[in-house]
Please model this.
Amino acid sequence: MITVVSAPPFATIQDLGRFGFRDSGVPVSGLADRDSGLALNALLGNDPNAAMIEWAVAGGVLRFERDASVAFGGADAICALNRAPLQARVVYHVPSGSELQIERIVRGRFLLIAIAGGIDVPIILGSRSTLLSARIGGAEGRRLRTGDSIATGIAVRRVGGDVPLATAARNSGPIHVTRGPQADLFDDLGWSEFLGAEFIVSIASDRVGYRLDGLTLSHTGDTAFPSEPTCIGAIQVPNGGSPIVIMNDGPTVGGYPKIAVICKSEMSRFAQLAPGEKLRFELTR
Amino acid sequence: MQHTPSIARLGDDALLIRFANTISWEVGTRVRAAAAGIRAMEIESVTDVVPAYTTIAVYFDSARITLDSIVDTIASVVNTNASVVADSSAIVEIPVRYDGPDLDDVAERTGLTVRDVIARHSSRTYRAYMSGFVPGFAYLGDLDPLLVVARRSVPRLRVPAGSVAIAAAQTAVYPFETPGGWHLIGSTTLRMFDVARNPPALIRAGDTVRFIPTDA
Model:
């Protein structure tokens, strides 16, 4: 069991997501930085879909109420165990009563804290992921709060197996996208502006969607465009407005044209961009 | 008139089949029939089949199957103009207390009496075109043409769960407290989305829905 001694403003429990209910309006949810989550679970000998804590915004403290093997990664953060500094992507065997201090997130958005055996909250519609809009998954469908007790699973495998060590290094450079279903509504000028622009992740961005400042785009589309299914990474463009990227908890349908979709292999890197960070897009294939 | 549906990719893990560019009952029926046909194929690695007004998205695990392979597999179902309507026979009845804060405003905008607004809203049988926005939110149509009003210019930050609302040619029930720009004309105590049920959504695409006025 883990006790949340001091919760940050935003932390939820996530796994790889909830599938099969999008036709009822249920988004996939799941870890925004899926790649880092997979790497940590591999490091700990967990099932790839084991749930972990996705921790954002500020520092806090967790206490492990029994002996545990833990690792963290994703965003760069300053963390310590009983005041001794820790490194990311390393398995620590911590005795019962140990406290993990998350001082602050230095770079990126989501710090992932994983434990051997995974977080053991009830599986709701096939997933442990928290979905705040429907109050389901994770800790009673809400953010973690100070004082929460979080059940943990039993580690089934010896930790520290063969681990992709390259996970620390993230690509830099433009975020790759493919053409979206409404790519043709944007003329050559619109596309060259889109691909030439330096966007800034807006403060108005969360697990539902990231708004991108820096360029507004116009298109030739009908404003009465019928809503249609979206996907994680879809870049929606309200006419004359700032693009909005659909994130893990975003709506399953939307009525804005989608100029492009971020490649799946780039979504983890994109999700870790914090407000104020800059990015460009590059069209692939 | 039937067009040949177009298929486009929607990122790396999904494709989008487009049957038309404008909403109509006929297109909606065809969309749902095709979605049912694709589901019935039980293609391994397909995680979700999502019908909307004029489109269907098919989501899959790109690590296990390619987009081209799915396109080949579903082509026959998509291109057949299914004469069999695959809509469910389920009729969902929703008791509504017509006490919404926008009832008077809707009456004023439409030039109808409040009584007439209620009568026109509750006398129709609706079909669920699609779900989205939040879990369990079903877009129901078509509204009586005299009740069609544009959505509010300033959305509410908090619409209570269970609110029965209208906007444009649609009506819906808000399953959860969320922001919202539709006109609130009533409320229901039914739970629109409940994970303890199977399926969790009270209304699913293709279902028939009636609103029953109640005093309680």
User: Anything to note?
Assistant: The mean pLDDT of chain A is 92. Residues 1 and 75 of chain A are 24 Å apart (CA to CA). The domain at 175-283 of chain A is CATH 2.40.100.10 (Cyclophilin). Chain A has two domains: 2-168, 175-283.
